[in-house]
Amino acid sequence: MKQIIYTLILCFLLLLSGIACKDKPVEVKKQAKPNIVYIMTDDHGYQAISSYNGELNQTPNIDRIATEGAKFTRSFVTNSICSPSRAVMLTGKFSHLNGQQINSQRFDGSQVTFPKILQQTGYQTAMIGKWHLGSDPTGFDYWNILPGQGDYYNPDFNEMGEKSRVEGYVTSLITEFSLDWLKNRDTEKPFALLMHHKAPHRCWMPDTTYLEKYNDVKFKLPENFYDDYEGRTAAASQKMHIKDFCPVNDLKMYDKEGEIDGPLRKYFENQINRMNPAQRAAWDKAYEKEITYFKEAGLEGKELMEWRYQRYLEDYLRCIASVDDSVGEVLDYLEENGLAENTLVVYTSDQGFYLGEHGWFDKRFMYEESFRTPLLMKLPSRFKNKTIPDLVQNIDYAPTFLELAGAEIPIDMQGNSLLPLLEGEAAEWRDAVYYHYYEYPGPHSVKRHYGVRTDRYKLIHFYEDIDQWELYDLKEDPTEVNNLYGKEGYEEVTQTMYTELLKLQKQYKDTTVTNVKLN
Ligand code: CA
């Protein structure tokens, strides 16, 4: 009986406290603004990320971002080249509006960029690594950048205007400086860190740790490695073919005797002369055997082509191995310091890259390998386990970061925040993306072109000293070797794509080309 009375009293008390709690104003713990760690590499093709491919290499740390977050499978740039892509990312605007159409221009740092708005919103901001925009960074509380393209070994850094040479390997140094900044930040404020790697940019100099990696691997040739460019004049006239490699600079055939020559031998010599004796000894030991083989084998024709391809991929992927380690270090730091849950981590590249597709290296073309770029994002407090096939573009990054920070997105930014795609099913999303490349005449001789891509088709117009249209059915011809433009049965698709192209040129205010007519 006593037991029952006690229970009743207890229930009554609990009920009372429950009512009391209900009447009290509910205290919602305010979720702090998410931090942002934006990791961007230079020329990292999606083919060389195991989360996307896995046939070439393994990138377990980069893959962690995809596994714990979101993987975009159709992420594109607006202009596939270094500086222009960086300007698009900062401004959320196409090249014709942000003024950075080609590499050699100087970025106008007085314009509105997302880091500036984040600063005004109370974020502390930092930019560490490859900047490559000519002018000094603006919108950052702290910056420490590589001058120009930067160097792989013992590179110079420009820290807030103070230049000095730092001993070490570039990828490790950028990681170290980024972690130092995170450790010494003001923990009362949210942060946005832009961490921009030089790797895996040409001339693909791996760290001494990885000089032997992939020695025993034979990489499979891409399906269209021996492309004949039939019906594609611009593709036939480029200078970014694997046969255009400088054996010394690109394939590391820097022999002591100086018997192997190439147009970039002097440039490469400057790179290698930056090494300290220990680095140099490791380097010479690693390449000695291959140099001897190359001199003695007298390779020709297909054998020579395939040897070049193999050499290229080994060094390119070795550089990525260091990048993957770096990503692991950053993710570990965030986890160990309780920051993982509420930090958006982004992994992307300034554009994609050809890894032997069409017989090429480099970028620039609107064909998939360089038009597409890897894009992985994780923010466990907001989304998990997603594969996003929608057509997104680097104009979308700035609006995404601003929406996440609770800042207003300027009306003239041309992209859309990706949060609706990340957090749910976007009711409405674009069904076509627009592209425009300008750097011609220029390095690698890729003609100027613009174009439109939908889920299935791509229409490209090459212009300036040429007037050629190309149409691809990406479902039937994913390697883009069959130009359907002008072929019977494609009149309607061509017309639809042309209408879409004009619509996007108008929407994005691209008036750099006028009188666009099919021929
Ligand atoms: Ca690049």
Task: Summarize the structure in words.
Helix 2 packs across helix 10 (301-336) and helix 6 runs parallel beside helix 10. The chain has 14 helices and 16 strands. The radius of gyration is 26 Å and the shape is globular. Helices cover 33% and strands 15% of the residues. The strands form three sheets. A ten-stranded mixed sheet has the order 7-6-5-4-8-1-9-10-2-11, with helices on both faces. Strands 13-14-15-16 form a four-stranded antiparallel sheet, with helices on one face. A two-stranded parallel sheet has the order 3-12. The protein folds into three domains: 35-205 and 315-422, Alkaline Phosphatase, subunit A; 236-310, no CATH class; 437-507, Arylsulfatase, C-terminal domain (2-Layer Sandwich), CATH 3.30.1120.10. Bound molecules: calcium ion (CA). Calcium ion is lined by residues 42-43, 82, 350-351.
